[in-house]
Amino acid sequence: MIWLDTLLQGVLLGGLYALFAAGLSLVFGVMRLVNLAHGDLIILAAYLILGVAAVLGVTPVVALLIAAPVMFVVGWLLQMQVFNRVLGDDILPPLLVTFGLSVVIQNALLEGFTANSQKLSLGPIETQSLHLGSVTVGVIPMMTLASAVAVIFLLNQLFYRTSLGRAFRATSDDVVTAQLMGIRPRRIFAMATGIAMVVATLAAFYLGARANFDPSIGPARLLYAFEAVIIGGLGSLWGTLAGGLVIGVAQAFGAAVNPEWQILSGHIAFVIVLLLKPRGFFPRATD
Amino acid sequence: MTRAAPIIEIARLTAHYGDFQALFGVDMRLGVGETIAIIGANGAGKTTLMRTIAGIVSASSGTIQLDGRPITALSAPEIVMAGVAMVPEGRKLFPSLSVEENLLIGAYARKAAGDWTLDAVYGLFPILRERRNSPGTALSGGQQQMVAIGRALMSNPRVLLCDEISLGLAPVVIRDIYAAVPKIKASGTSIVVVEQDVGQALQIADRVYCMMEGRVTLEGSPADLSRAAIHDAYFGVSA
């Protein structure tokens, strides 16, 4: 029975990783940009929620609702003012710029909030759990997974049921021909990054509710997100959820065998999937 | 013959790809409701001219006016919104979109309702209704060309630029594609067709421009142009 419990905890943890990865997947799917600052932007959002809650004296949930549109604007401006200037045939400039942004965010947070660990306090719900037969699951982890599924579902609806989603896909397919449809790629990219930052803010909320965070942990979140995106298949949103679950389950089983093996197990699962399916589980046909 | 009021007027247009000059002082006009054909051999500058009108290639000098308003400096999306749509060479359908989605994306920038709706495009090319849920790129070449034309029409353009719409298609398919041109023209849309098939161009055009090496070498109505004059202008040598 302990294996069932381990599996369930892994799936729930995978929900958090899927949330980390969804924004990364969205941005990569639309503009082939690998945002190396994605993890740090999640941590920035966590500090924003923390700051809003502290300054306005509101709960983290209310702070999340305030921080999400702010992060949308941050994403929009980053794309319009920074990323769009370096997007092109050469993949190196965007990598360098987002790496630089990662360093800037980490150091700015360190300067502003020190290296002390922080946590979002949600009150009694943090320790509440539900008994499902013989296993017990935490309410917050369940909410995390449900949010991840909801986010992926909504992003899919956006992609495949709306005019904006068609513009996302058309721009991703052929940026020049998309302009002949009246689409402005720079704005489409900015919209995608803005939405990705809203998802990142939700990920930040659950990250802060489940564990401590400090300015230095962004790159590790990026790594988990990156692995989830690769495992799922570049640009596939449901694949990203599957990738997050694979990492989460692998980490949970690794930790069950030996707590020191938790992180390593996730990375090993990533390597195994890469060896067996180099393009991930659900690669886009046009990639 | 009275000249129709110009909807597109091009004066002394030049364009470059890096150091290579592709257009040399091109003058051209398209009347309201008129169909003109631009003919010429490979490398004559036809596609560059179309891409410059559409805003994909920047003009180095000269002017392009739409209804008397300069559009030379506008971006491609702004030119679409101003009323100029393009059917690009090679069709360029979006692989991740279905046939219907490819058509709908053509209406992305449309601000007001117009003649060209999904139903109108399906009326023009009925086969597309049957294939509307198929991936655009899964269709035959001729059907893909129909989608590309329908997609451009979905923006309800005042000017339709068609670049090599017969390229790589069987003669019977080309006939079907060109059968749509008079219907499009009847909706009030002015049309520019780039075509290497001179016979086809002469059949559908009110006026013909022949280009060679980035310059217009001949202009006139099909009835006024002799076969020898077209041959000379097309190849740059006397027949």
> Which overall shape of chain B is indicated by the principal axes computed on the Cα atoms?
globular
Topology order of chain B in helix (H) and strand (E) letters? EEEHEEHEHHHHEHHEHEEH
Domain count of chain B: 1
Strand line-up in the sheet with most strands of chain B: 6-7-8-3-9-10
Mean pLDDT of chain A, to the nearest integer, reads 94
The average pLDDT of chain B is: 91
Helical proportion of chain A, percent range:
over 70%
Are there runs of chain B of 5+ residues with pLDDT below 50, and where?
Answer: none
Q: What is the ordering of alpha helices and beta strands of chain A?
A: HHHHEEHHHHHHH
Radius of gyration from the alpha-carbon trace of chain B, in angstroms: 17 Å
- Structural class designation of chain A: mainly alpha
Radius of gyration of chain A: 19 Å
- The fraction of residues assigned to DSSP E strands of chain A is under 5%
Oligomer: heterodimer
Note the main sheet of chain A: 2 strands, antiparallel
Q: Using CB atoms under 8 Å apart, which protein chain pair has the greatest interface?
A: A-B, 20 and 26 residues
CATH class of chain A: Mainly Alpha
- First-to-last CA distance of chain B: 29 Å
- Find the CATH superfamily of chain B: P-loop containing nucleotide triphosphate hydrolases
CATH architecture assignment of chain B: 3-Layer(aba) Sandwich
What is the count of β-strands of chain B? 10
Keywords (chain B): Amino-acid transport, ATP-binding, Nucleotide-binding, Transport
Protein name (chain B): Branched-chain amino acid transport system ATP-binding protein
InterPro entries (chain B): AAA+_ATPase (IPR003593), ABC_transporter-like_ATP-bd (IPR003439), ABC_transporter-like_CS (IPR017871), BCAA_Transport_ATP-bd_LivF (IPR052156), P-loop_NTPase (IPR027417)
Pfam family, one (chain B): ABC_tran
